[in-house]
Amino acid sequence: MAKQIVILGAGYAGLLCALEARKRLSGIDAQITLVNKHTYHQLITQLHETAAGARSDRSIRISIQNVIRDKNIEFKKGIVQQIVPADKNVVLDDGTTLPYDYLVVALGSEAEYFGITGLKDHAFILKSVNQARLIRAHIESCFARYPYEKKSELLRFVVGGAGFSGIELVGELADALPNYAKDAGVDMSLVELYNVEAAPGILPGFDEELVQRARTSLEERGVKFMTGMPIVEVAPGVVHLKNGQSIATQTVVWTGGVRGNQLVINAGFETEPRGRAKVNEFLQSTNYSDVYILGDCSFVLGNEGRPFPPTAQLAWQMGSAAGKYLYHDIKGGTKVPFNANIMGSLASLGRKDAVGKVLQSYKMYGKMAYVAKEASQIRYLAKIGAMFAAR
Ligand SMILES: Cc1cc2nc3c(=O)[nH]c(=O)nc-3n(C[C@H](O)[C@H](O)[C@H](O)COP(=O)(O)OP(=O)(O)OC[C@H]3O[C@@H](n4cnc5c(N)ncnc54)[C@H](O)[C@@H]3O)c2cc1C
Predict the structure, then answer these.
(1) Topology of domain 113-256+343-391, per CATH?
(2) Would the N or C end of the chain have less CB density within 10 A of its end CB?
């Protein structure tokens, strides 16, 4: 009888896992069900562009049906409510219970607020297409309101966090805000863009020379960095900092940290303190070997004993690997331990600039780096067969 494979989450990890497993396993071997809360796959790596208004939200939503068409993968739109590994089933919001022989959990991450007062209630986060749309609409409304209300906090924008996604958002806003100002007839000299970060520097893990280039590029476009400066409270219209300073603002976007998906903790999978599941060398939960846990909701150590940062690149490599492991579980053969091949990492700094390393050590910056980053996006779309599948 066909084994039941249930895959939770059609993000980078889950979608790649479904495609790889189906490439190797026939319908007689396995029935594959892919569950996702939306009917589309989100290009989360482009969210900052949509939030700033540089890219339409349609172009970063990929129809899941179009990607899996003719692939004998069943798609179920639903929100996972509970994972019950002891009973080998999953409960969805419509009450459906999905039994499984093998489960893949690829539900992504959640924002980490570090217990900062008011942050969850008064800051935007950037983790979905809908949140990106909300940020864009809010920025537009700030500029639309300013000529009537003349409140300076409408033109002051604060991004909390100077990691990868925070810096990418700041770069995009640095390019976009002058256009918003021009369209609204607002003097750009009144607009302020802050990046506030608790750590001493920006872009942790990046080469110091590239960090400096990024900082200079953004400062030249008006970004005000406040590093080594923890946010202690966010209240309506104001951000309070640890040194006693406050920033009056109507717009705070929090990108300062992620943690594992709460469903993973609730299910009883072994997790580390940030709620990411511990997995073995084959990406199986350390306490349930019939469950693979992938992408941002898992915790994988690299060769140097340090955890890999949560990236789309890592997520889709885990997805592909898990697809192969499922084949071996069902058809036999030897599994090769997971080994991430992180070829590099490029952070965009707006429409014309980026910094990072490619081919493991080759440093890139400027327009060339930006083009390389765009090319990696196109390669990804080609890989999932979605060059023309945006909805
Ligand atoms: C602004 C920004 C820029 C980034 N830029 C880069 C970059 O340039 N390069 C890079 O490598 N990484 C980048 N990242 C990180 C990268 O996007 C993540 O590491 C990656 O998305 C993780 O993939 P995943 O498959 O684990 O989760 P996701 O891609 O988040 O997918 C999880 C899926 O699960 C679904 N889901 C969640 N909860 C439920 C539920 N309860 N029920 C049903 N479905 C559910 C979601 O809708 C989603 O489809 C960026 C992140 C951000 C926010």
Answers:
(1) FAD/NAD(P)-binding domain (3.50.50)
(2) N
With a 6 A CB cut-off, is 42 part of the ligand 1 pocket? yes
| pLDDT tens readout for residues 165-195 | 999 999 999 999 999 999 999 999 999 999 9
Among 35, 44, 172, name the best residue to mutate to test ligand 1's pocket (greatest count of ligand atoms within 8 A of Cβ): 44
| Per-residue model confidence (pLDDT) at position 40 | 97
Q: Report the pLDDT value the prediction gives residue 389, as an integer from 0 to 100.
A: 57
Report whether residue 107 contacts ligand 1, using a CB cutoff of 6 Å: yes
Query: CA–CA separation, 137 vs 314, rounded Å?
Result: 31
What is this structure's pTM?
0.95
How many residues would you count in the chain?
391
Task: Determine if ligand 1 sits within 6 Å of the CB of residue 55.
Answer: no
Question: What are the residue ranges spanned by the domains of the chain?
Answer: 3-37+78-111+258-342, 113-256+343-391
226/233 Cα distance (integer angstroms): 15
- Cα of 372 vs centre of ligand 1, distance in Å, is 21
Helix, strand, coil % in the chain, rounded to nearest 5: 35, 30, 35
Average pLDDT of 116-127? 98
Question: Is the beta carbon of 224 within 6 A of some atom in ligand 1?
Answer: no
Q: Which fold has domain 3-37+78-111+258-342?
A: FAD/NAD(P)-binding domain (3.50.50)
Check 168, 172, 208, 270 and give the catalytic one: 168
pLDDT of 360 over the 80 cut? no
User: Which whole number is the average pLDDT over 25-42?
Assistant: 97
